[in-house]
Design goal:
The mean pLDDT is 94. The protein has a 5-stranded parallel sheet with strand order 3-2-4-1-5, with helices on both faces. A 5-stranded mixed sheet has the order 6-7-10-8-9, sandwiched between helices. It is elongated, with a radius of gyration of 23 Å. It has 11 helices and 10 strands. The chain starts with a strand and ends with a helix. Helix content is 43%, strand content 18%. By secondary structure, it is α/β, with parallel strands linked by helices.
Amino acid sequence: MTGTLVLAGTPIGDIADAPPRLAEELAGADVVAAEDTRRLRRLTQALGVTPKGRVVSYFEGNESARTPELVEELVGGARVLLVTDAGMPSVSDPGYRLVAAAVERDVPVTAVPGPSAVLTALALSGLPVDRFCFEGFLPRKAGERLGRLREVAGERRTLVYFEAPHRLDDTLAAMAEVFGAERRAAVCRELTKTYEEVRRGGLGELAAWAAEGVRGEITVVVEGAPERGPEEVGAEELVRRVRVREEAGERRKEAIAAVAQEAGVPKRVVFDAVVAAKNAAG
């Protein structure tokens, strides 16, 4: 019989948040694949657990090479436990490749539910939670970051992002530029840890705050775009949106099509606005 792949959530801060089944799975797994074996050692010591199985590293650098090895263990009947540094495996952490490969070989996959920075930040944000989407980490390069944000500028669901503290000010400034400085957001820092902080406000206000320097693990929650009819988007705003996309490297034709779809107006309306603005500028 084939084994089972177990994805286990680990605490995102407070060790007391470890799910009860985590200790049992750590003790009983044939193989424990950990994003960082040193952090795993600290976790098992805190839980008073000694893994009986083999402990191997499974991180971004060796994920592709180690996945086939672990799949063979699973096919051979092993119970493989996958843990990452914090939260659920596969959510902006290693795991997706292993799950996909296990599913392809008809290996059962289950999970030990645990803490999630995404859901914790969403719940604490004070923003709508009935519909949301997780966007993970934004690209590091400014142009690519702006491009990704423009793709969701009209998204009405609440948006959730992870971000590194040293890039937070640039990210919030980019969000303010694309979404608008008044769009509501929440920066959730060091969730469940001693210095937990949730800072709420407009994106422009939060960008100014972050410019002074922020430390710790960061999750950003952004309010979705407000519903608006075509008549609410004036010609000047349509032209501005096209210009922003062109400055990011898009061809005018594609920029006009994207803005038209985003604003809910015919492409001809956007085209005419761009031409009129060009003629007015001389």
